[in-house]
Specification:
8 helices, four-stranded antiparallel sheet
Length: 245
Amino acid sequence: MRIAVLEDDPSQADLIRLWLTGAGHTCHIFARGREFMRAMSRDSFDLLMFDWELPDVSGDAVLTWVRANIRDNVPVLFATARAAEQDIVQALKGGADDYLVKPLRKSEFLARVDALERRAKPQSRKAERLRVGQFEIDLERRTVLRDGKAVELTQKDFDLAAFLFRNVGSLVSRGHILESVWGRSPDLNTRTVDTHVSRLRSKLGLVPEHGWKLSAVYQHGYRLESVTPEPPAGKENDPPAQGKP
């Protein structure tokens, strides 16, 4: 997963980064709540992790902002020294998905992260196949079938297709795509993403006439979603056939 960690203690942040990257995740550290909220307004992550005590905005205030402003219900894990029952209840009622009290224990921490991933994305990244609508994505053989017929894709097109179908309905930033599919810094030029998305839309027929919409979201990224199929352009306004007089 691509994980955003809001933690102002450098030693804690380094430890969390070490554990998460060792488990195969990508970790982005933020030390200030306002810095994190600015990033969330243009970027996307698979999991958010908050400390409560921060120098500028408290973790529970950031949680309130996320649930009010971020459409996708991204899972949130609190990791904080605050152990009072009322704090735990407040965080969970405010929209947190799990709560851990510091000091963190590595095995438990990673198990909680894995559990949140399973709940958020039931079609696991470790699954051999994804079935979404008329598409079947074989992750082992690296093939995509549409209505049972193979679609010819390049290696990167396949990686992009698998990523988008794992995130159907979610808004994913160009940086998120670059990092997950190309393994590149999200600060690099994103035209590569736009080019591949356009090509994939055409190859897989991800258009409303076929029940799909792969749309660009200004200054953010892309969203793939299932929609009600639309008739081909011009068909809906054709006059009814007239019989001979």
